[in-house]
Amino acid sequence: MTDIQRTRIIRKEIQKSYQLFRKKYPILNHQNAIGFTIFIVCLLAATMLGYLWWIDSISLFFLIVGNAFLFGILHELEHDLIHWMYFKENKWIHHTMLLLIWLARPLTINPWIRRIFHYHHHSFSGTLHDVEERGVTNGEKWTWKRLLFTPDLVIGNLLRVRKLFEDISSEVQKGHLSLDTGNQLKKYGILALIPITIISHVILYAFTIECFLGVLRTFFEWNIQLPLWISSTLDTLKPLIYIVLLPNLLRQFCLHLITSNLHYFGDVEKGNVMEQTQIVNAWWTFPLQIFCFFFGWTHAIHHFVVNETFYIRHFTRKKAHQIMKEYGVRFNDFASMKRANRYHPVQE
What is the pTM of this model? Predict the structure, then answer.
C-alpha cells in the first residue's frame, strides 16, 4: 500500500469519527458560539488570575502556570481562526478575535501574516522554505543554542534569517518555489515581527538582564545597575510582564519544543502527509503538553484532516490514534531529534 493510499484511508476514517461525534453531540454544530465562548472565558479567566495576583490572593507561580495554560488554549483558537473556522461570514468579529488573541499572546507573530505562512506550511511542510516551522528551530541540530532560543522569535530568527533567505533563494533557482512566493516569504518574515512581537521581546530581554544583575548584586555584591529610566520603565510594566509575558514565555517554550520535534524536516516528500508529522504523547511530555493544549497529541491529526476544530480533534483523538498507528504514522520518534528532525535515518 502506498503512502497516498494510507493517507486516504486515515483521512476517511478520521472524518467519519468526526461526523459520528458531532451527531452524538448536536450542540457542536453551534461552532461560532462555542469558539466565542472559549475566547471570552479564557480572556476573563486570565484577567481574573491577574487581578487575584495583584491583590496578593494567589502566588506568582500560580499566575504564570494558570495563564500559560489559558494562553495555550487561545493559541489553538487562533489556529482555528487562521483556518476560518469561526465567523467566516462575520469578518468584524473574526478579525477582532484574532487581534485580541494576539494581544494576549504578544510574543507571537502577526496572525494575519501567520495565516500566509501556515497555508504555505500545509502545502510545503518539511521543506527548506517551510518558514513557519523553521522559525521555531525545526530542522536544526540540537545544541544549547537551539534550546536557548527555542521560544525566541526575535534574536533566534535574527540568527537564522540569513541561512533561511539563502535557502529560499536556492529553492527559487531550482524551480521548487516561484520567485513571487519566495519574495513574499522574505518580506513577511520581517514584517510579521513588527511592532508587537519585537517590543514584547525587548521588554523580556531587559527584564532578564535586570534579574541577572540582581543576582550579581545579591550573591557577589557587584553593584551594577541598569540605567534609571530602564529600571523605572520595567517597574511600570511589571503587571504586563507577570500577567502576560512570562506566562507566554513558558507557553511558547513548550509549544515550540513540541512542534519543532513532531514535524519532520529536510527530506520530506512534497505532499506526503505520512512523512510530515508524528504523534508525540509519551507520558513524560505531559508537563509540556499542558501549556500548548496537548499539541503533540493532536497536531498530526490536523495534517490529515485540516478543517476541524481543536476541541473536536482533542476529544476524538483516541480513534484517530488507533487508525494512524495501524497505517504507519509514527509515534514518539524521539530519535528524530538526533537527526535534526529528518524523517529518514541519516546515512553515515
Answer: 0.96
